[in-house]
Amino acid sequence: MAAVVTRVRRVDPVRPEPAVLRIAAQTLRAGGVVAFPTETFYGLAAGLSSVGGVARVFSVKGREATKPILVLVDSTVMVESLAEKVSDTARALMARHWPGALTLVFPARSGVPAAVTAGTGTIGIRWPGHAVAVGLVRALGEPVTAPSANPSQATPPRTSEEVLGYFDGALELVLDGGPTPGGAPSTVLDVTVEPPRVLRRGAVVVDLG
Fold first, then answer.
1. Along the 209 residues of the chain, how does pLDDT read in single tens digits?
2. Which fold has domain 7-200?
3. How is the chain split into domains, by residue range?
4. 3-state SS record for the chain
């Protein structure tokens, strides 16, 4: 893949500037990839409708095509545009833990790109609790991908400098919101089954009793 010029834009992590978010959204609409801060680590965003952008996220990470990637939303309405079914249990979990570091795996609607689901028929969805992450979704007006901004098997980055160490010349834009807390990744729950099944223990402790 040909090198690109990776721009870095400072962004307020609490009150992100609308002009910066608009630039990021324009980058995503053009098929670009944007690194951005979340409440744990930096993530890699492509617009869900951008086939080329999603493909590049897989490419730059060296991620296997058989591994699905989660997406971020900014509302339960956006969830319903992606999920074939949202159970009462899932709604209760969303109400209790969102926005936050809980990813819920739903049965995917037929229109969800196969690259995102990796042929599993399911999609992992999260409403983030970080102002830049949710602001990016809102500025674009559609879900964005959010795998961690590191090559597969490498350590997830907490700073824009660490992102550039991995991907300078491979991404169009890095939104530098300062250091992120790090720690555990998002908890992942499969809500296609009842009761939900823990796929990955992480930042959010969920009482399923």
1. 567 899 999 999 999 999 999 999 999 999 999 999 999 999 999 999 999 999 999 999 999 999 999 999 999 999 999 999 999 999 999 999 999 999 999 999 999 999 999 999 999 999 999 999 999 999 999 999 999 999 999 999 999 999 999 999 999 999 999 999 999 888 999 999 999 999 999 888 887 76
2. DHBP synthase (3.90.870)
3. 7-200
4. CCCCCCEEEECCCCCCCHHHHHHHHHHHHCCCCEEEECCCCEEEECECCCHHHHHHHHHHHCCCCCCCCCEECCCHHHHHHHECCCCHHHHHHHHHHCCCCEEEEEEECCCCCHHHHCCCCEEEEECCCCHHHHHHHHHHCCCEECCECCCCCCCCCCCHHHHHHHHCCCCCEEEECCCCCCCCCCEEEECCCCCCEEEECCCCCCCCC
